[in-house]
Amino acid sequence: MIRTLVFILFFLPVAAFAQFTIKGRVLNSTDKSPVANASVFLNNSVAGSKTDDNGLYKITFVRPGQYDLVVSCVGYETVHQNIIVNGDLQLADINLPPKIMMLDEVHIKPRTGWAQNYALFKQYFFGTSKFAQMCRITTKGMPDILDLDRDSKTGVFTAKSTDYFEIENRALGYKIRYFLQDMTSEPSGHFYYEGTAAFEELKGSSSEIRRWKKNRKEAYEGSSMHFLRCVVGNELTNEGFKVLRLIRKVDTVHKNNNDKAFSTLVNTPLKTAEFASRTTVTGEYALNFKDCLYVMYNKQKAAKGKPVPADWASTGWDDAQITTLIFSEPYTYFDNNGIIINPASVAFDGNWGRRLMGELLPVDYVE
């Protein structure tokens, strides 16, 4: 996708965004017959549908933004399609290729240490927070679905799945169908995972629904989604965020320093226009900064509907949640929903880096 930056920021309140409808049809790519009962959903969201006997689907209440539209059905290959939603959409027919069953050579993998590796996987995947403690995998036969490996020499832990598995998050009130494409955890603390997720709200009592709503708000506050939506709405200060410049340099002059990194924090708060701008793609924005961004959040500083003290940004941050954004590419793109489009372009060190599946909210979450 070709894009350029527009350096005059034009922000809109996130709550003002409308909701739209996506319609289309799913066909068998071989004979063009309708594919019934196929799952059509927006990756990492609660928005989804099933095709009817004519292969037709309809997804409603879709927030504007960029999405990965996923179509999956038993007996067919899964298809992904990138879409931009800024109005009602009538998509072209989506053709699903039937799966070709091939008899491959069977390799029997030893399951020695499976229980230990599985315990590590759940710790890395869910995290160790109070919300993570209320997550569980409900799918049976996980040894046949998860491919787990821990390198005895490097200590690097990797995982991927061969199929979807179901997760129940009793803290946030979601059931999640998840396909893990890749997960890597290194002893250095570097952690990365990506996958495809379909969210569904759990049914519960009125008290459970109230608790889930409260917990979702807690998971949202101070998150990367919250931060990026505040960038779009120009609400960082009022929502309790402060952004500073962090200069990180590696000392390559002195010997035997093991390339030690030195950091300098500039205490003058940055303005949004100094690190973010619109692109020419509708509903898309970009972070662009030559150094690291040091993002602080303290919800005690969030004062909706109240005047913000002029000196608030320089005092009272002892209890702040802190994240350092380390950029590996010139631009980190994100959309109206506060979702990063090219996640490999930036690494999170600190608070956001510890927010794992246990705190994961769907991309179309609203308070």
What is the tally of beta strands?
23
Proportion of helical residues: 10-25%
Based on CA atoms alone, the radius of gyration comes out at: 22 Å
Average pLDDT score: 86
Give, in order, the helices and strands.
EEEEEEEEEHEEEEEEHHEEEEEEEE
Distance between the termini: 31 Å
Counting helices, strands and paired strands, the structural category is mainly beta
| Unreliable parts | 310-315
Largest sheet: 6 strands, antiparallel
Count of DSSP helices?
A: 3
Taken from the alpha-carbon principal axes, the silhouette is globular
Strand composition percent: 35-45%
The total tally of domains equals: 3
What does this structure look like?
The chain has 367 residues and is mainly beta. The protein folds into three domains: 10-96, Immunoglobulin-like (Sandwich); 114-206, no CATH class; 222-356, no CATH class. The protein contains three helices and 23 strands. Strands 10, 11, 12, 13, 14 and 15 form a six-stranded antiparallel β-sheet that branches. A five-stranded antiparallel β-sheet has the order 17-16-20-21-23, with no helix packed on it. Strands 1-18-19-22 form a four-stranded antiparallel β-sheet, covered by helices on one side. 31% of the residues are buried. Mean pLDDT is 86; it is low at 310-315.
